[in-house]
């Protein structure tokens, strides 16, 4: 927990953004071309430098926390591309999350409708039981033809956020497939791995969890899939709901962190949040737990998997919270290149956000759609038939853009492709 002995300008002392972090910005502007919202809007206050300026002005008591200030921070994707670019080490993600916590506590809101959608998303997505209960009505909505009717009628057009939510629904909703609680290792034993099954992942992309467990086992890891594991709290963290985030983090650590050598995630957003538990919880236990966390690509890159041939042209999109949040870029590419027959074509601006960013595409559908269209254009240039991305949000966002544009594209997690290539001994 970040605390300060005195009030910090317009901020409360509890969980105030770090003054050192804010002052680290030397206004050089190197981050500007890397910022997706600055690229689209060209506005200084919608750039990293402008946002740091606003946060610092509030911290120094030169600005109030107003809806106008909140609007510039709402438009930020939290993608952290600015952190990668910044030569001064400005910890933008942590500054943003701490400032959002202050805005939330003081109920400073730029748009009430976006706030209502955020409340709804936070009440559903991080709760596996509620998300699971939603699946049946959603299936009915699709299978009955109601969804087709709704889309054809254009009835949702005035309600941009509802329209975005409808568009993001996968065409076929799979059922949650439950993995056994323990999957034995095959071959040379490496240790014991706890698998985070994720909230969205377990219901919308169960095949990714299956592939992850299968590959881990083939790589020599005994896989534990603890029952009753909850949410990592990433959405709450990004929304500045720090108390709820901390409670979720503590409960997840208790569920996953016992008697294991590593904790594995296959969702970039979750992995990035887990690796920051030490910072936000500020105790040794959380630090130790964060040190156990690995993205699946970081684990598999050290394994010698028996892979058969797949003749495919593939491109790779860097999920922001993998590339910028966890600095994991080389490992997924290396794994894809190891599949015999796969040609990996680099994607221009691969690490520029696709517009998904947690629930950003529900809260800011226009900006998200513009970024999605730009991403799809870059993908189209590669000529690849498959796009690999290590985050469920990116998979949904790019799939939806491809569907709307009529582009025949398979969007999948790298482990799905690796699992297709895996030859059992
Ligand atoms: S986090 Fe992303 S959107 Fe926000 S200021 Fe940084 S680069 Fe721009
Ligand atoms: S690159 Fe870093 S130091 Fe330069 S303007 Fe951006 S945030 Fe500030």
DSSP summary, beta strand count = 9
Strand ordering within the main sheet: 1-3-2-4-5
Low-confidence stretches: 1-5
What is the helix tally? 24
The percent of residues in helical segments reads 40-55%
The gyration radius over C-alpha positions equals: 21 Å
**Morphology:** globular
Average pLDDT works out at 92
CATH topology label of one domain: Rossmann fold
Class derived from helix and strand content:
alpha/beta
> Strand portion, in percent?
5-15%
Heteromolecules bound? iron/sulfur cluster
Biggest sheet, open or closed, and with what strands and sense?
5 strands, mixed
The CATH class of one domain is identified as Alpha Beta
End-to-end CA span: 49 Å
- Please name the CATH architecture of one domain: 3-Layer(aba) Sandwich
Summary?
This protein is an alpha/beta fold. It has helices spanning 19-23, 36-41, 48-59, 67-74, 81-85, 92-105, 112-124, 128-143, 146-153, 160-168, 199-204, 206-218, 234-238, 242-256, 268-275, 277-281, 284-292, 296-300, 320-323, 330-338, 360-363, 365-382, 392-405, 414-421, and strands at residues 182-183, 191-195, 221-224, 262-265, 293-295, 312-317, 342-345, 386-389, 410-412.
């Amino acid at each position: 927990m970040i605390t300060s002995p005195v009030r910090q300008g317009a901020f409360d002392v509890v969980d105030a953004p770090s003054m050192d972090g804010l002052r680290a910005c030397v206004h050089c502007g190197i981050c500007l071309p890397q910022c997706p919202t600055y690229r689209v809007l060209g506005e200084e206050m919608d750039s990293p430098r402008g946002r740091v300026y606003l946060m610092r002005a509030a911290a120094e008591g030169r600005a109030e926390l107003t809806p106008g200030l909140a609007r510039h921070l709402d438009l930020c994707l939290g993608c952290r591309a600015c952190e990668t670019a910044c030569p001064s080490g400005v910890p933008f993600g942590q500054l943003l999350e701490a400032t959002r916590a202050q805005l939330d506590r003081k109920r400073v809101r730029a748009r009430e409708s976006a706030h209502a959608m955020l409340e709804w998303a936070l009440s559903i997505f991080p709760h596996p039981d509620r998300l699971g209960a939603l699946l049946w009505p959603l299936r009915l909505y699709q299978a009955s033809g109601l969804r087709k009717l709704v889309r054809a009628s254009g009835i949702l057009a005035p309600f941009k956020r509802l329209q975005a939510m409808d568009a993001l629904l996968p065409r076929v909703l799979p059922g949650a497939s439950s993995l056994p609680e323990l999957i034995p290792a095959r071959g040379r034993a490496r240790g014991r791995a706890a698998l985070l099954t994720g909230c969205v992942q377990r219901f919308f992309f169960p095949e990714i969890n299956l592939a992850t467990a299968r590959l881990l086992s083939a790589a020599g890891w005994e896989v534990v899939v603890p029952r009753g594991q909850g949410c990592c709290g990433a959405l709450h963290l990004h929304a500045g709901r720090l108390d709820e985030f901390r409670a979720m983090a503590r409960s997840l650590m208790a569920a996953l962190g016992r008697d294991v050598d590593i904790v594995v995630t296959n969702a970039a957003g979750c992995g990035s949040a887990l690796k920051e538990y030490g910072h936000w919880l500020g105790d040794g236990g959380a630090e130790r737990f964060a040190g156990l966390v690995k993205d699946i690509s970081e684990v598999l890159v050290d394994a010698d998997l028996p892979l058969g041939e797949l003749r495919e042209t593939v491109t790779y999109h860097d999920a922001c919270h993998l590339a910028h949040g966890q600095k994991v870029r080389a490992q997924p590419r290396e794994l894809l290149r190891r599949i015999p027959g796969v040609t990996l074509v680099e994607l221009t601006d691969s690490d520029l956000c696709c517009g998904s960013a947690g629930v950003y595409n529900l809260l800011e559908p226009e900006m998200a759609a513009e970024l999605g269209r730009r991403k799809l254009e870059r993908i189209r240039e590669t000529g690849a038939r498959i796009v690999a991305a290590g985050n469920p949000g990116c998979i949904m966002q790019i799939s939806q853009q491809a569907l709307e544009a009529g582009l025949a594209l398979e969007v999948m997690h790298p482990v799905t492709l690796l699992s297709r290539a895996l030859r059992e001994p």
